[in-house]
TrEMBL record:
UniProt organism field: Vibrio tritonius
Molecular function per GO: ATP binding
SUPFAM superfamilies named among the record's database cross-references: P-loop containing nucleoside triphosphate hydrolases
Nucleotide-binding listed as a keyword: yes
UniProt keywords, alphabetically: ATP-binding, Nucleotide-binding
Record bears the keyword Nucleotide-binding: yes
Organism domain of life: Bacteria
InterPro entries in the record: AAA+_ATPase, ABC_transporter-like_ATP-bd, ABC_transporter-like_CS, P-loop_NTPase
Name under which the protein is recorded: ABC transporter ATP-binding protein
Domain (ABC transporter) ranges: 6-235
Length: 309
């Protein structure tokens, strides 16, 4: 992963007076699954479209697979795959016809095209659906067909924009197994998501908010560096307790209820977080309190919030 598939420096994209991407820089190593995590409207999709050359940046420098973007966007398109959030294939065409159409776009010969279609249908479990029109397929089946079409040309770099937003957890898990297979074979993948568990699967992760990049790095490192300790509290009256805790913003970053527990993020300046809580809130002396492992959701809460109204 020493070579870079994507190098972007100080990217800005404005639409009139609105700044969709605000001075983003990123380096994506080859063979890496690089995730963009953030809420809808934070700039993830705009960033992907800018990196592919579909949109022209207002300022900044972009190099993708050695091509200058947007200058070399037409050459780059032969080397990449792109799967949009909304199903964008042809409803009136069958599985095989959709794959065939994609292969034709990339100039495959009839023999190569038929062989590649067969390989993709086998890889993505579409053999029995060969003649099924896309209109009648389930969400998970459409997702597999979209990925099969996006990888018809064996792309060096695959862009996936919210690819699992309309499928169930089992299909999401299977989809990610396919992504790891592709990564193992050397494909670089850039994927946007708003699912915390998906973000934790990425080799490297950027957290976006309001067009800005709030954090960037391997998920484990981000969790280790976020500057808070997490205490889970099991006690009666959690809603009242949460309100009391949030009156100490210098010590407590956030508090959120998870079932019968309250998950409290306490700044690391508090050396003994459980002891501090027991001293500050005597009613917690008999409560069950434990130090918990950080999650990507904790990281997200720790680094975002500045741009909110």
């Amino acid at each position: 992963m020493s070579e870079l598939a994507i190098r972007a420096e100080h990217i800005v994209k404005r639409f009139g007076e609105f700044t969709a991407i605000d001075d983003i820089s990123l380096n994506v190593p080859k063979g890496c699954i690089y995730g963009f995590l953030g809420p809808n409207g934070c700039g993830k999709s705009t960033t992907i479209r800018t990196l592919t050359g579909l949109l022209h940046s207002t300022s900044g420098e972009i190099e993708v697979l050695g091509y200058k973007i947007p200058r070399d966007a037409d050459q780059l398109r032969l080397k990449i795959g792109y799967m949009t959030q909304k199903f964008s294939l042809y409803d009136d065409l069958s599985v095989y016809e959709n794959l065939q159409f994609m292969g034709t776009i990339f100039g495959m010969s009839p023999k190569t095209l038929d062989q590649r279609c067969a390989e993709q249908m086998s890889t993505y479990g579409l053999d029995r659906l060969r003649n099924q029109r896309a209109r009648g397929m389930s969400g998970g089946q459409k997702q597999r067909l979209s990925l099969a079409c996006a990888t018809m040309n064996r792309p060096e770099l695959l862009f996936l924009d919210e690819p699992t937003s309309a499928v169930d957890p089992e299909n999401r898990r299977d989809f990610w197994e396919k992504l790891f297979d592709l990564s193992e074979m050397g494909t670089t993948i850039l994927v946007t998501t708003h699912y915390m568990d998906e973000a934790e699967r990425c080799h490297r992760l950027a957290i976006m908010e309001s067009g800005k990049m709030r954090a960037d790095g391997p998920p484990d490192e981000l969790m280790a560096q976020m500057g808070v300790n997490i205490v889970e509290v099991k006690a009666p009256g959690l809603r009242t307790l949460k309100a009391k805790l949030l009156q100490y913003p210098q010590q407590i970053r956030s508090a959120a209820q998870l079932g019968v527990r309250l998950r409290v993020l306490i700044y690391q300046q508090i050396e003994d977080p459980i002891g501090w809580m027991q001293q500050t809130f005597p009613e917690l002396n008999k409560a069950e309190m434990t130090i918990a492992r950080p999650t990507i959701e904790d990281v997200f809460v720790s680094v975002t919030g500045e741009g909110r109204q």
